[in-house]
Write a structure and sequence with these properties.
188 residues; mainly alpha; two-stranded antiparallel sheet
């Protein structure tokens, strides 16, 4: 019975038929109002459910026109992080930033994220950028790369940081020319 219904429904549902119905709906005032109401209802329901999700960490109270903390964060990211770390009393908390939920890790918890095997910084970075392209390690296993970072790079970071900054500045000069120093910038 169910398969017959699905087959009958699929036969009736062809692209021309659907487009004709949509065109007829959007050309009438009632159809346009109905579609607009449906979209607004779906958006409102989605927003309502997104605000009710238990994220497992304290949340920065929603502010701004869209319930986001982006405006406050853009003014001064370090001040935003310090303010809410102090107000919430924990180094890990959540906030709505740039239209997405962000988990902010600050203070002593940052080292835990990098050094604890239960947290995979490399796998997390792979979701936002292709690490293999940056490190030229196409065949290397992620655990080998993260293990190397934890074993050799993290404990000796003070030896590499100055050199990395120098190389970044050289690369910037080669690509875009002279880069003004922060102290040389004039604020308006």
């Amino acid at each position: 019975m169910l398969t017959e219904y699905i087959h009958h429904f699929a036969d009736r549902l062809n692209s021309r038929n659907v487009m004709d119905h949509l065109q007829a709906a959007t050309s009438s005032r009632e159809g346009l109002f109905g579609i607009s109401a449906a979209v607004a209802l779906i958006a409102g329901t989605t927003y309502y459910h997104a605000t009710k999700i238990d994220r497992g960490v304290p949340q920065v109270p929603a502010s701004g026109i869209f319930g986001s903390s982006t405006d406050e964060y853009r003014v001064s990211p370090p001040a935003f992080i310090e303010k809410w770390r102090t107000k919430l009393g924990v180094p890990v908390y959540g906030a709505q930033l740039f239209g997405q939920h962000a988990t902010i890790v600050s203070g002593v918890a940052v080292r835990e994220i990098f050094m604890n095997d239960d947290f995979s910084f490399v796998k997390g970075m792979q979701r936002s950028m292709h690490v293999a392209l940056l490190t030229n390690t196409y065949s290397m296993d992620v655990s080998v790369l993260s293990g190397g970072i934890k074993r050799y790079l993290s404990p000796n970071l003070k030896h590499f940081t100055k050199r990395v900054i120098e190389h970044l500045e050289i690369g910037l000069e080669q690509k875009i020319g002279t880069v003004p120093r922060k102290s040389a910038c004039v604020s308006t």
